[in-house]
Amino acid sequence: MAVIGADGKVVLNPVTVKRDLGQVIEVDGGLAAGDRVIGNPPDGVAAGATVRIAEEGKNAKH
User: Are 7 and 17 in contact (CB under 8 A)?
Assistant: First the structure.
């Protein structure tokens, strides 16, 4: 799972999937409350890459 670290860089965390419900999964480990998950990371995302967070609603694809 790709998350954004406190320094604004990508962190790749291994996660444990508890249940796969199709479009939703339940994670049993590897994420903490408050983690900023990258919802749809590109294939080439690498640990340590700098992330720029777009403002919510701006540049959003519908």
Answer: no
Q: Tell me, rounded to whole angstroms, the distance of Cα 11 from its chain centroid.
A: 9
Amino acid identity of residue 25, one-letter, is: I
**1-57, pLDDT tens digit by residue?**
999 999 999 999 999 999 999 999 999 999 999 999 998 888 889 999 999 888 766
> What does the alpha-carbon distance between residue 61 and residue 34 come to, in Å, rounded to a whole number?
24
Which runs of E-coded beta strand occur in the chain?
2-4, 10-12, 16-20, 25-29, 36-37
- Sole residue written with tokens 């294939």: 43
Please say whether the beta carbons of 15 and 54 come within 8 A: no
Take residue 20 and report the two structure tokens written for it. Answer: 């796969």
